[in-house]
Amino acid sequence: MFDFELVNPKTLESVPALLSRNWGETMLLAGGTDVLDLLKERLAQPQRLINLKSIPGLSYIKAGDGLEIGALTTIAEIAENAEVRQNYAALAEAAESIATPQLRNMGTLGGNLCQRPRCWYFREKDLICLKKGGELCFAVEGLNKYHCIFGGGPSFIVHPSDAAPALMAMGARLDLLSGTGRRSLALAEFYQLPEDNLMRENVLGPNELISAVKVPAPAAGTKSTYLKFREKQSHDFAIVSVAAVLQMEGKVCQQARLVLGGVAPIPWRVPAAEAELQGKTLTAAVLAKAAEAATANAIPLSQNGYKVQLTKVMVRRALEKLVK
Amino acid sequence: MAKWKPLDQMTYLGKGYARLDGPGKASGAVKYTYDLKLPGMLYGALLSSPHPAATIKRIDASAALALPGVKAVLTDVHPTGTLRYAGEEVAAVAATSPEIAADALERIKVEYDVLPFVVDLETAMKPEAPRVYAEQSNVREPRVESEGDLAAAFAQAAVIVEGTYRTQVQVHACLEVHGSVAKWEGDELIVWDSTQGVYASRDGIAKFLNIEQSKVRVICDYMGGGFGSKLQAGRYSVIAARLAKATGAPVKLMLSRPQDSISAGNRPNLIAEIKAGATRAGKLIAFSAKTYGTAGIGNNARPALPLAYDVPNSRTEHYDVYTNAGAARAFRAPGCPQASFVMEQVMDELAEKLNLDPLDFRLQNDSNETRQQQWKMAAARFGWSKRAPRPNASRGVIKRGMGLGAAVWWPGGRGTQAQMTILPDGGIEVRCGTQDIGTGTRTLVAAVAAEELGVPIASIKAMIGDTEYPYSGASGGSTTAPSVAPAIKNVAEKAKDKLTEVAAQHFGAARTEVQLADGRAFVKGNAKNALSWKQLCALFGTMPLVVHGEWVEGLSSAGVAGCQFAEVEVDTETGVVTVLRMLAVQDCGLVLNRLTAESQVIGGVIQGISYALYEDRLMDPLTGVLINPTFENYKIVGALEMPKIEAIIYDQPERGVIGIGEPPTIPTAAAIANAVYHATGKRMRALPMTPDRVLAALHS
Amino acid sequence: MQDQNESPVPIHDTAESPPAEEPSSKISRRHFLKLSGGGAVGTVILTAGVHAKAAALPPDAEVFSGSVSLQLKVNGQRRSVTVEPRTTLLSALRNQLEVTGCKEVCNRGECGACTVLVNGKPVLACMMLALDAAGQEIVTVEGLVQNGKLDPVQQAFVDHDALMCGFCTPGFVMSVRALLDRNPNPTEAEVRQAVAGNLCRCGTYPRVFEAALAAAQTAGKRG
Lengths: 324, 700, 223
Description:
By secondary structure, chain A is of the alpha+beta class. Chain A has helices spanning 15-18, 35-40, 75-80, 82-87, 89-97, 101-106, 109-114, 120-123, 163-169, 271-277, 284-294, 306-323, and strands at 5-8, 26-29, 48-51, 61-64, 66-70, 173-178, 181-186, 208-215, 222-229, 240-249, 252-261, 268-269.
C-alpha cells in the first residue's frame, strides 16, 4: 500500500465534496475487504481514502413496503435478517454464500456491489492488461477457465458479486449521491459492459456513492432463490450462479426474472429463458427449455465451455427448487 | 541390541496423550520465526523479477535508499544475474517497517534484457523451444531402469492396458511462509529460521556466507509447516544475514505469500505413458512407463513407478524437463502420490479386463505381508463387499463409487545424538538438535524420556530446535521419529544407570538390588524406604548429572505399509466429486503417541483429497507468470469439504519406531480416482479432478 | 527414493546467460509488463491523479495522515500505538504491540489465520485498518486465557489434538469461540460453517470439529 490520508467524515452529505472529480485520486472505504486488497497490490493508489464507517446511520435494514438496506449494512446482517430470509430468499441465500464468516462480518452491501473483478490477470500487479490501460485481454489466449461466456469483449472478466444478481432479479434500485445531488437508479442500469466502458464496471461517477439499496415488495405468489456453483464450498467465488424470482399463480408462472452471476462482465439477465417461463405451467419440460434458452447466446472461450453446461444445470435446478 | 519394553508395561508409548506444546500454540503464547521482534529489528523484503527469463542489466537503488526508514538495499542478491523464472529474487531491502520496505521495493529501478521463456512442459520439449539453461537442452538425459524381459512378458500377457496419465504441480503452501530472522553478535551469526532442519540450515548458511559452521547458530522453536520445502537453507536466510551485516541490526525477512508459492518449492507434475500386462490368472507381469515431469529450473521430477506392486518385467524411462518456473523441492512422499494416481488406476483397469475384483487383483500382486493383512482388515471395515460389481451402477444423476490404493514408504532413521541433564533439584532437561515441524517431536522426546525414567511426562523439559544442542538430522522422509526416539531412550537409559549407581551408594546396596520406578529409588523388597526423585537428585550436591546418548540399533526400523479406501459421490450434471468417507490403515511400528499418529494419518489423507480435487499451480503460457500464487485461486481443501475420515494405526510394536509422515498422503488421490471410475464408468486420467475435467470425461 | 529428498538446486546456481533472442511469444513482454521500479509508471490506473490535488475538507471531518498516535483496546487493555493510515490492524498488533497470536499467512483475507474478535465478531485483522479499530473491543487468542487458564475452546483443541504445526490454530480457536458465544450448542454442520473461512494445511479439520463440539459440552458460553 502506498501511503494515503484517511478521512473520517461525519455526514453522508459531506462525502461527495471529499471525493475528487478525477478517477483514482480518492476512494471510498467501507468494509475494506476489496479496497485493502487493491491497495496492497498497488492496483489502486489514491491519495485519500474516505471512511464511510465513520458516518452514523448507514447500516440498517428497514422492512415495510419493500426493503431498504443502508449501503454500509454488512453481508452477515443481511444474511441473518429475519425479514430478508422470510420474503427475499434469493438475497438471503446470496448473502449467505458470500466469502467466509469473517468477511461477511466486514464486507458491506455497497462494497459488494462495487467490487472490482477477480480476474487473475487483472489482480497480478506486474501485468498491464486491457483494463489497466494495456493492449490485451490476456484471457483471450491465456488461461480462461474462470472467465466469461456472455457479454465478453474486449475484456472477458466476470462480475464477482453474489448480491448483485439476486438484487437485480428482485428489481432493486439504488439511491446514489453525488456532488450534483441524489438520484435513483435501477440496479439493472448500474452495471456496464466492457464494450461500453473498459475501465469501470458500473456507472458510478468519480464523486458519487451508493447510499442505500431499495427492493420492491414482492408481489403475492413470489418465490425466489439463489444457487451458486463453486469449485469448493469453503470460500470460493461463483463459477456460475443463478438468481431466480418467480411470481406464481397456482402452477402458472406470471412473471419470471433470471439473472446469472459469474458468467458475464455484469450480472447477466436472460430474457429468453424468462420468456420460456412466463404464462406457462412449470412442468419439467418447460424448465428444461428455459435452461436451454439461458445459454443460447453463450460464446465460451477455449477453456470455459464447461460453464455453459453448468449454467444450464444451475438454472434448471434453481427453478426446480422454486417449483417443488 | 537395545529393545523397548513390552507395550503393556508402558505408561505413555502406545497410548494417546496431548502434545506438550498444545497450550502454547492454542493460546498464541509460543513464538514462531514470523512472530519474533528483536530490539532494533529491521524488516526485510525481496524484489522479484517480473520476467520469466531475463538478465539484469542494471539496478539503481538510489531512490529506494533515499526513502526515510530504508537502511540498506542489496542489488547483488542474485548470484548470476540471469533470471530463469518470474518471481526470482533481484534485490533486497531492509527498513524500519514492513510498509516502508514495500515502498522501497517500488523505488528500485531495474533494467532487464528480456529473454524468451517457456513454462509449459510439452512446449519446452519441442526442439525450437527457448532454452532454460543456454548450454543444455531442456530435456535431460533419461533415467532408465529395466528388469526382466519386457517384450516376452507382453507377448505372454492375456490382457494389456495402455494410457497416458497426467498430474499437476502442487505447492507446499506452508501456512508460515519461508523466512528467517538474522542477528550478528560480532562475527557470530544467529538465525531464527522456519526450517525442517536446524543443522541443515546452519550448514547451508555457513557455506554460502563462507564462514565457519561454528560461527552460525540456527534456532527453530516453532515452525508453521514445511512438508519437505524447508529441508535446506534458503537464499532468504543468506540475504537476511547480509542485510543484518550491512545495517548492524537484526533483520527479519519473510517471503510474501506469492513469493513463497513461486520460489519455495513444489511437487513436480507428471505425464506418464503407461503400458501394463497381466496373465489370465491375474498376475501383473509386464509394466512399461515413459514419463516426463518438470521440476521447473530444478531437477528430479521422477515418479516412483511402479510403486507398491511386484512386476517381474518392467522398464521405466524418465525425462526431467526444464521450464522457466520455480524449482521443485521434496514434497511429502516425493514421487509417490503422482505414481500412485497412475499405478492404482492401471491396476484397476487390468482387474476389470480380467473380470477380477480390484481388491482380489491386488492381493495377488502385493507381496507385502503387512499390507496383505491390512487390505483384508480395511475391506471388511469399509464394507467393500457391498460395492457394486460393475461401474456406473447407480441410477440417477448422483452416482456413488468406491476405490482403493496402497501406501508404501521406505526410509528409517539414524544419526541422532542427545544430552540429558538431571539437576540437583530434580529437574530433567533433554537436549536434542531435532525440531518439531508439527508432528509432535517435542512431545515424543519428553514421552520417551519419561517412559524410560519412570517419571511424569510433565517433569521433562524437552529442548529442541537449536544447533547448540546435540546433532539430529533434518525432519524429512519420515525419518524423525525413528532417528530421535532411540537416541532419547539411549540417553535416558544411561542417566538411569547413573541414578541407580548413586542410589546404590546411598543405600549401601548392590546396583542390581536397586530399582528405579514411579519416580522413586529403593532397594528391591523395601519400597517403603524409598528415596523420592528429589531426594535422589539432591545426592548430586551442586553438580548436575549430564549424560550423552545416541541413536542405537534395535529400537527402530524402516519400511511401512498402508492402504486407503474411498467412497465418493459424483454429480454427473455438474462434475462435482464429493468424497463421502475415507478409511486409512497405516502401520508405523511401535506407536509413540496414538493421538498424534492418528492426526498424521488424517492430515495426510486431507492433503491427498486436496491434491485429488482442488490444487493446481498454473503457469500462464502467455506471460510466464504463476497466475494463481494466492489461496484465492490456488484452492486448498477446507472445512466444508471434509468427508468422514477413519484412521486406523496398525500396531507392530515389535518392529520398533518407524516414521509415518509421508505414506498416508500417497494413495488418497488414487483411491478417489478409482472411486470416480467406479461411480461413473469414466476414467479420470488427469489431476486435479475439477468439475470441468470430470464433465469432459463424462461426455467423452 | 533418497535422492528425491536432496536439494535439486543449489542456493546459488551458476549457469551462464542464454543468448538474447526475440521472445517467442507473439506479444513482446514490454507491452504488458509494468516498467520495473518507479512506483507510478506505466498505466492509466496507476498514474491517474497521483499529482492532482484532492478536494478540500469539510470542517467536521477527521483527517489522518503521516504518523498517527492512537489507542487500541486489546484484550481489555488500552495500548498506545503509532501507525500510518495504511497500517493494518494485523500489522499494528503483530509488529508494534507484539500480540502475535493472530498470524500473518496470506495477508489478503483468504485464510482466516489473523481472525480476531472486534466487538465480539470474528473479523480479519489483515483486511482492517488499525485506525478503523480504534475505540473498539479487540480480543485476540491471547485474550481468551483467564488467570493463566486456557479457555474451554483452547483446552479442547489441546485435548483433541486439533492442531499440528499450530500456525492456523489461533484463527480456528477464535472462529469457534465466536460461534459458541452466539450458539452454545452447535451442530457439526454449524461448526463447519463457522470455520469455513479458516485454512489448515496440516489437515486438522476433523479434530477441530471434535474439539468445538466437546468445548460446547464443557462450557459453551463464556463468563
